[in-house]
Write a structure and sequence with these properties.
The structure holds 2 protein chains of 2 kinds. Chain A is mostly helical. Helices cover 75% and strands 0% of the residues of chain A. Classes of the chains: A mainly alpha, B mainly alpha.
Chain lengths: 293, 270
């Protein structure tokens, strides 16, 4: 009890920290350990044995699908984040230029982002269906050829399109709120000096919202690397392994075909190792934004 | 940054919004269609409530909703309580390494579900917690507590310390001071935080899918019930979608003001 007298904050923090240590930090630690074993779903924990870095060696040198899945994950992440950032910012500027029904418009616009992803994924499956999906009917009506959206060649494109549909509103919302904090005086001064809209954007607005843009970017990168719900329900990583993102590869190794929980854990550890530097970067940006707020 | 008034801008904006809503509206439409009409694209059809009826009668959708509600309400209540307590500690005390601790907590929110699902699966198997609501409640605390801590920290920091201090001078203890001074001011924030926790847990799929099998399935995992050998039962699926998205959409309207704060866990002002 002496401890609590001296460090009163512990009284408030300890309950939450204890729970978090038990349900987040301990399992993560456990994941690292499993990744060093040959654990299989059918095995009892008593029977597992340590195999050192064997699982990692398997991933890196034997499992060709692992490298493919890294490539797919990176392509998926970079393409969708780039498009979302550009499109989202453009739409934010558009929203900003016209303030009428602002609240209503934003509430409607963010519905793709808040709708239950697993269910939305199945709706997209219907929309993208090659024979009777509304997407192809619409394209033909516009005079374009329909596509086999969920085929090996197009499945990843479809996933990227869905991600763009789902998350552009997020970027828009963030950038839009950033735009609201841009001070008016420099803009008015620039008007007096006869600056064009584009000049004002580049020299006044962009520097002001740069922190919020980079925070949005980092959060979105993490979100893409984590993604599972939509991909699983739309393609299960297929056809073949055309859309097998890293988290889907974890799923395939551990649960779907083989039951190698050890190897799946190693793959999950790699996923964590990719995310960690982004998170630490995010921490820096956020502390900067908090200090300057 | 306002531009010259032009009639094109509102028109373009509404077209974009409509495009964003199109898939959801399509789902709404399909949920009222009869099985034979689903493949056709006509907007003119005889609406039916058949799909909604089947979903509740044949697929026991109510049980999914009940499971989801129990899990979501319990996890939200516990995280908001523990999270607010910890947020108070972070907001009102100064100590060494405070910011590192706060970011450590924040980073826990970024854990990919597929990374925690394996250890949880194994541990749950050995404690016989697989397929229980309790397990999902525990697992969901993992991402909701960091979230509430960051959200509530921001709201508490916005309450001026000096008012709280004057309450202490009047003989209030910290707890009394919190209840009388801080709590009324952070109440809207608390409500918003709860709604965000609700939405996140309501939509969560991956963990629920791997850690439950029959007894405690939640709404997002119902999608598997509709994939039969005959293909997907689209009408029923759409009905489920509409029912599950409705509470979320309504709730989001309430937290409009806090959306940005919620999406960044209060890490940036918005």
């Amino acid at each position: 009890m002496m401890l609590f007298k001296q460090r009163e904050y512990l009284k408030y923090l300890l309950p939450a920290l204890t729970v978090l240590a038990l349900i987040n930090i301990f399992p993560t630690f456990f994941l690292y350990i499993i990744s060093l074993t040959n654990y299989d779903i059918s095995q009892r924990v008593e029977d597992l044995s340590f195999v050192g870095l064997e699982n990692y060696r398997y991933l890196f040198s034997i499992d060709k699908d692992f490298w493919k899945s890294i490539c797919i994950t990176l392509t998926y992440t970079f393409v969708s984040v780039t498009v979302e950032l550009i499109l989202g910012s453009a739409i934010a500027l558009l929203f900003d230029a016209n303030a009428r029904f602002r609240k209503l418009k934003l509430s409607l616009f963010i519905i793709p982002m808040i709708a239950t992803p697993s269910i939305i994924a199945l709706m997209w499956k219907l929309i993208l269906n090659a024979e009777y999906g509304v997407m192809n009917t619409f394209l033909r009506w516009m005079g374009c050829a329909g596509r086999n959206w969920l085929s090996t060649d197009f499945a990843l494109v479809s996933l990227i399109l869905i991600d763009i549909w789902q998350w552009t509103p997020y970027v828009t919302l963030m950038i839009y709120s950033g735009l609201q904090t841009v001070p008016q005086e420099p803009l008015e001064a620039a008007d007096v000096d006869g600056a064009s809209w584009f000049q004002k954007l580049v020299w006044i607005v962009l520097p002001h919202i740069s922190t919020i843009v980079s925070i949005t970017l980092l959060l979105k990168l993490i979100e893409n690397l984590k993604s599972f719900d939509i991909v699983y329900n739309l393609t299960q990583g297929g056809p073949g392994n055309a859309t097998e993102l890293l988290s889907l590869h974890v799923f395939r190794l551990g649960f779907k075909q083989t039951h190698w929980l050890g190897r799946a854990s190693a793959c999950a550890v790699i996923l964590l190792l990719i995310i960690i530097p982004i998170v630490s970067n995010l921490a820096k940006k956020i502390s900067y934004s908090r200090e300057s707020a | 940054m306002k531009r010259k008034k032009s009639p094109i801008i509102p028109v373009v904006t509404w077209i974009i919004i409509l495009a964003a809503l199109a898939p959801v509206l399509w789902m709404l439409l399909i949920s009222f269609k009869q099985r034979v009409d689903i493949i056709s694209f006509s907007v003119l059809f005889k609406p039916t409530l058949e799909n909604y009826k089947t979903v509740f009668q044949k697929y026991d959708f109510l049980r999914f909703i009940l499971n989801s509600t129990i899990v979501v309400v319990a996890t939200t209540a516990i995280s908001v309580f523990l999270g607010t307590l910890a947020a108070y500690g972070l907001a009102r005390f100064q100590f060494r390494k405070k910011e590192s601790l706060a970011f450590g907590i924040l980073s826990l929110r970024m854990l990919p579900p597929m990374a925690v699902v394996i250890p949880f699966f194994i541990m749950a198997r050995y404690t016989h917690l697989l397929d229980t609501q309790l397990l999902l409640i525990i697992v969901y605390l993992g991402f909701n507590i960091p979230f509430t801590i960051w959200m509530m920290r921001g709201f508490i920091e916005d309450v001026s310390l000096s008012i709280e201090e004057s309450a202490w001078l009047d003989g209030c203890t910290r707890l009394e001071g919190f209840c009388r001074v801080v709590f009324p001011s952070i109440f809207p924030g608390l409500a918003a935080t709860s709604i965000f926790c609700f939405i996140q847990s309501w939509n969560e799929f991956a963990l629920a899918f791997f850690l439950t099998s029959f007894n405690s399935r939640t709404v997002p995992t119902i999608v598997n019930s509709f994939i039969s050998v005959l293909g997907v039962l689209w009408g029923e699926m759409a009905a489920v979608g509409v029912v599950s998205i409705l509470p979320i959409v309504i709730f989001t309207m309430f937290v409009q003001k806090y959306l940005v704060k919620g999406l960044t866990m209060g890490a940036i002002k918005g």
